[in-house]
Design goal:
The protein has about 300 residues and is mostly helical. It folds into 2 domains: about 150 residues, Orthogonal Bundle (Tetracycline Repressor, domain 2), CATH 1.10.357; about 130 residues. The chain is about 75% helix and about 0% strand. The protein is built from 14 helices and no strands. The longest helix is centred in the C-terminal third of the chain and has 27 residues. The radius of gyration is 20 Å and the shape is flat.
Length: about 300
Amino acid sequence: MTSLPLPATHYLPASPRDLFALTKPRVMSLVVFTGLCGLLAAPVPVHPVLGFTAVLCIALGAGAAGALNQWYEADLDAKMKRTASRPLPAGRMTRQTALHFGVGLSVFSVILMDLAANHLAAAILAISILFYVIVYTVWLKRRTAQNIVIGGAAGAFPPLIGWIAATGQISALPVLLFAIIFLWTPPHFWALSLFVRTDYANAGVPMLPVVAGITNTRRQIALYTLPMIAAAIAPWVMGLTGWIYGIASVVLNVIFLALSLAVLANKAREPKEMKPEKRLFGFSILYLFAIFGALVIDAKVLV
């Protein structure tokens, strides 16, 4: 006897691989790294077990936010080529499973952070999750082209949380680290959105290139690069870091500025011709890893 195919509405239990995919692991890697750097750059020694647990909580919180984002945006993901293969639009998981997984992971990460670190770190972690899910995903993303500008705050919390997990308090340097990521997010995502704007247009997401045009988006990338550079160099100028971070920051920001100006000068309208945009997007990821890595090296070498 041959078995009949499963009906289209039947879902097999979610696989560990698909649950992991819900956490947006590529995005999480940057979140974990900046959170770890915030913790290591803090002037307070942290027990390795507690430090590992705090960074784990940041990772779990970021993963929870990613899962809840995919739960809410399953309809949008189904309309875009680069996201159509995710577990929910591909039909490998129910939305209820994603919701339960995301909520459970959120609660667990916040409680564990509270037990391993302190109340303030746990509170900021909870705020970061709620900000990404409610403010960015539910409120901003489908309503305004400023979604990335405001929503970028969600991804800027990890170094602040890492610092607070170590010290129990907020000071000038972690606030500047928050500002660097907050101001880095628009040029980073707008560079991407320029060469995948058709996806966003098809899904009805009002990303800047879709509603304001390609030329204006290129101009905004160059404009947002300037305050980002100011925030990135400020820790050195203010005497909060040493010369290692200072030199690395200047070099990285000069390259970022040059790439953003190349984007501004580009007149191409077809994605395959947007090499400056692709170079800026690729470098922007390296930029954040490098500048936060320089921060930690500076803090540990120049003690």
